[in-house]
Amino acid sequence: IYSGGTFTPIAVSGITSLYAYGINNSGMVAGTYVAANNAVAGFTLQNGNFTSISVPDAQQTYVRGLNGLGDVVGEYVNSLGTHGFVRLGSGEFWTFDIAGALKTYAASINDARTVVGYFGNESAYQGFIAMPGGFGTLDELFESLTLVQTSKIANFPVILVGTEYWGGLIDWIK
After folding, report:
1. Which one of 3, 100, 123, 147 has the fewest CB atoms closer than 10 angstroms to its CB?
2. What is the mean pLDDT of residues 67-75?
């Protein structure tokens, strides 16, 4: 960690490699580490408290970004493939996949819990993810759907995370 002209290394017993990918305004650092036994997991570090993050039933968990609320995002690997996830500051996990994609990656999350990332297969990567947010999210969602419908941009999957949140809108559209 480099702050105020001073470099402070992050050293944790039993960890052979550590990759810090983000820091929020409260000083929480998030990233991924490789343990001495080659296990791969995510982490957060705040005020000297190191917290390991592993998605349940994952073989590997990679944390790529965090927000000011202490939520982290990334991808995890299990026997079925590579999947995206959000881990809320409360410890609750949201996992997701893009239909038809071999791999799904979540790269960053803001305080409105809007996630950006990408998905793909062997020939291409692309994506769009809408999380519960408000009128700005709805505007962006419908603008994207309209651009696809009018063939202004290539067709792509749209993921709406949170069945309860989006359920009424989906029913209304149908």
Report:
1. 123
2. 96
Q: How far apart are CA 136 and CA 138, in angstroms?
A: 5
In eight-state DSSP terms, residue 174 is -
Number of other CB atoms surrounding residue 31 within 10 Å: 23
Whole-structure pTM value:
0.74
Q: Are 81 and 53 in contact (CB under 8 A)?
A: no
User: DSSP code of 22?
Assistant: E
Q: What is the C-alpha separation between 23 and 126, in angstroms, rounded?
A: 26
Pairing relationship of beta strands 125-126 and 129-130 according to DSSP bridges: unpaired
Question: What does the pLDDT look like over 115-172, one tens digit per residue?
Answer: 888 887 777 777 656 565 555 567 767 877 887 788 776 777 777 776 777 788 888 8
* Residue 164, token pair as written in the block: 């309860």
83-87 — which CB contacts under 8 Å span 24+ positions?
83/55, 84/115, 84/117, 84/119, 84/129, 85/55, 85/61, 86/113, 86/115, 86/131, 86/161, 87/42, 87/53, 87/55, 87/63
Measured from the Cβ of residue 84, the count of other Cβ atoms closer than 10 Å reads 29
